[in-house]
């Protein structure tokens, strides 16, 4: 049987015939939103006010079949390297390494030296490189963004923190660390994450004096919990979610069908039994949960406001038309409670949080949306962040710019976060090396999306390729329309399940017993993936809210 790498992750060398290299090299603006649901933007079916991001969608292309990892740092590892996260140091999240994984290749808990990063290659190709926001790819100085290709950086090193200036912990024995250009810094008064990260990028863009194109990376920490929003946004969605998450899921799915984001025959994945229906909650709990979703929506709207400010700056500087904008979410919506963090017991949260109703969304509060709203944000897909089901791994992706055919096209081609690096390298007119600064590096595994963006091709990966996924012991393998998953209780049985995603994107009907031949094909591909990527399964499957 052919290598799973050959089946799943084909290296597409820059296609000079596509015309990309003949054009002036574009600027690149890459925006990653943290824990945002598939349908939160208006352009993907949501009711949240996101006019600036929606305008990007209208000017470019929307990908509706774009995959990421189920959680933050593995996605970012693949984004920065174009390679499977098991190869480059984030086989699992650093916070969840189990004893049998520690010390194994690919489980260092930070980006290892087997890969070269996207900003390193762009910097060497003559780009000005800058980032402001979440890093989550290593905390030691040698793992800092300033050592991984960014000439200017302002970064939260860990997975999450308060969105205000208090540098507040998410769980016990955790202190968020911020660095600017490799130096430890503390946050100024008035800091709010989405605004402050964007303003830092705007400052650097205005200060830039040379003629180099730029690569600007803006990884927001919102709307990752704790749910915090600026005071002027906290009342913007009052009453908007009183109908509950079951109704919201229905409304969003209907809107997605009308837009063509999902097929008209899509059936939503049923709500698992461990998540109560909205009508089963007490009036007090419904009120509290509705308030959490109001704050979440305010956070998403605030992100859009600041994306608008950044786009406005590019227009003022005369750089918008020659800038490629790439924006997506790093995983599915977060459905885990705040007590899912290590050591964050209900008693600890009570002692260390100010969750009075009047303070929710403000400094000192510590809440999340919970699983019901996460399911609604990911409908019709199954589950949410953490799981290798579609709800954990489907992300909305928008790309617009000089190498993208305009018109707001909705594109169902299968693509993957590993495809972003080869796409950007082709846009920049450079290639991926076999050695970097005297050391050997592994080859790219993603494929360029340039021809798809130009409307010259309707696929990125040939149909015969397979895609393997694993995190926290949950397992998935996709081959054509077929996907096999192994997700244990309470989400699924303690065995492989089989789904036809073209007919059943919600993974509602298990075909494992009906099609044992197809399941056997996929599980053999899974075994190859494990061997070739060096997957070390945890002794016991586990998951985290990060």
What's the gyration radius in Å? 22 Å
User: Mean pLDDT across all residues, rounded?
Assistant: 93
What distance lies between the first and last C-alpha atoms, to the nearest angstrom? 37 Å
Helix-strand makeup class: alpha/beta
Strand content: 15-25%
Kindly state the number of beta strands.
17
Helical content stands at: 25-40%
What is the overall shape?
globular
List segments where confidence is low: pLDDT < 50 over at least 5 consecutive residues. 1-22
The number of helical segments is: 13
In sequence order, what are the helices and strands, one letter per element? Answer: HEHEHHEEEEHEHHEHHHEEEHEEHEEEEH
* Biggest beta-sheet profile: 11 strands, mixed
Write the layout of secondary structure elements.
Blueprint: H1 4-8, E1 27-33, H2 51-59, E2 61-67, H3 72-81, H4 118-124, E3 128-134, E4 152-156, E5 178-180, E6 183-185, H5 193-207, E7 214-219, H6 245-259, H7 283-316, E8 323-329, H8 346-352, H9 371-378, H10 390-393, E9 394-400, E10 409-411, E11 415-416, H11 420-427, E12 435-436, E13 439-440, H12 450-454, E14 466-471, E15 474-479, E16 482-486, E17 497-500, H13 516-533
Helix pairs in contact: 5-7, 6-9
Explain how this protein is built:
- The chain has 546 residues and is an alpha/beta fold.
- It is built from 13 helices and 17 strands.
- Strands 1, 2, 3, 4, 5, 6, 7, 8, 9, 10 and 11 form an eleven-stranded mixed sheet that branches.
- The two termini are 37 Å apart.
């Amino acid at each position: 049987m052919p290598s799973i790498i050959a089946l799943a992750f084909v290296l597409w060398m820059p296609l000079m015939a596509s015309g990309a290299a003949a054009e002036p090299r574009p600027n690149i603006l890459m925006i990653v939103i943290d824990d945002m649901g598939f349908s939160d933007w208006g352009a993907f079916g949501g009711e949240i006010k996101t006019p600036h991001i929606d305008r990007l969608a209208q000017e470019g292309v929307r990908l509706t079949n774009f995959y990421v990892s189920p959680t933050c740092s593995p996605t970012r590892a693949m984004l920065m390297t174009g390679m499977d996260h098991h190869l480059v140091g984030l086989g699992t999240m650093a916070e969840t390494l189990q004893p049998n994984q520690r010390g194994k290749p690919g489980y260092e808990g930070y980006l290892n030296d087997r890969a070269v990063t996207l900003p390193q290659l762009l910097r060497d190709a003559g780009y000005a490189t800058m980032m402001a926001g979440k890093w989550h790819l290593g905390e030691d100085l040698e793992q800092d963004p300033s050592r991984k290709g960014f000439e200017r950086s302002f970064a939260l090193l860990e997975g999450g923190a308060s969105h205000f200036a208090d540098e507040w912990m998410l769980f016990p024995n955790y202190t968020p660390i911020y660095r600017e250009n490799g130096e430890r810094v503390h946050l100024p008064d008035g800091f709010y994450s989405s605004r402050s990260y964007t303003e830092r990028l705007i400052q650097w863009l205005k200060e830039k004096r040379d003629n180099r194109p730029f690569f600007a990376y803006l990884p927001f920490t919102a709307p990752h919990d704790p749910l915090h929003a600026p005071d002027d946004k906290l009342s913007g969605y009052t009453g908007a979610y009183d109908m509950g998450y079951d109704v919201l899921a229905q409304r969003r799915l209907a809107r997605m069908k009308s837009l063509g984001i999902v097929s008209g025959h899509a059936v939503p994945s049923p709500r698992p039994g461990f998540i109560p229906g909205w009508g089963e909650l007490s009036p007090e709990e419904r009120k509290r949960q509705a308030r959490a979703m109001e704050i979440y929506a305010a956070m998403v709207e605030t992100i859009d406001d600041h994306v608008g400010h950044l786009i406005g700056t590019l227009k003022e500087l005369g750089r918008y038309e020659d800038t490629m904008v790439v924006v997506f979410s790093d995983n599915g919506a977060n459905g885990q409670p705040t007590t899912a963090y290590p050591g964050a017991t209900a008693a600890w949260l009570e002692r260390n949080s100010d969750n009075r109703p009047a303070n929710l969304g403000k400094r000192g509060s510590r809440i999340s949306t919970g699983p019901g709203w996460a399911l609604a944000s990911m409908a019709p897909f199954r589950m949410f962040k953490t799981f290798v089901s579609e709800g954990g791994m489907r992300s909305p992706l928008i790309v617009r710019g000089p190498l993208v055919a305009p018109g707001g096209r909705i594109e169902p081609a299968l693509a993957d976060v590993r495809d972003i690096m080869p796409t950007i390298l082709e846009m920049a007119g450079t290639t991926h090396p076999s050695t970097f600064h005297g050391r050997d590096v592994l080859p790219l595994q993603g494929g360029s999306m340039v021809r798809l963006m130009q409307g010259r091709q309707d696929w990125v990966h040939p149909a015969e390729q397979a895609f393997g996924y694993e995190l926290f012991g949950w397992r998935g393998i996709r081959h054509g329309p077929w996907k096999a998953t192994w997700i244990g209780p309470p989400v699924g049985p303690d065995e492989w399940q089989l789904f036809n995603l073209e007919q059943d994107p919600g993974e509602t009907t298990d075909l494992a017993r009906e099609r044992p031949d197809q399941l056997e094909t996929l599980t053999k591909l899974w075994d190859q993936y494990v061997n070739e990527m060096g997957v070390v399964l945890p002794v016991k499957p586990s998951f985290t809210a990060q």
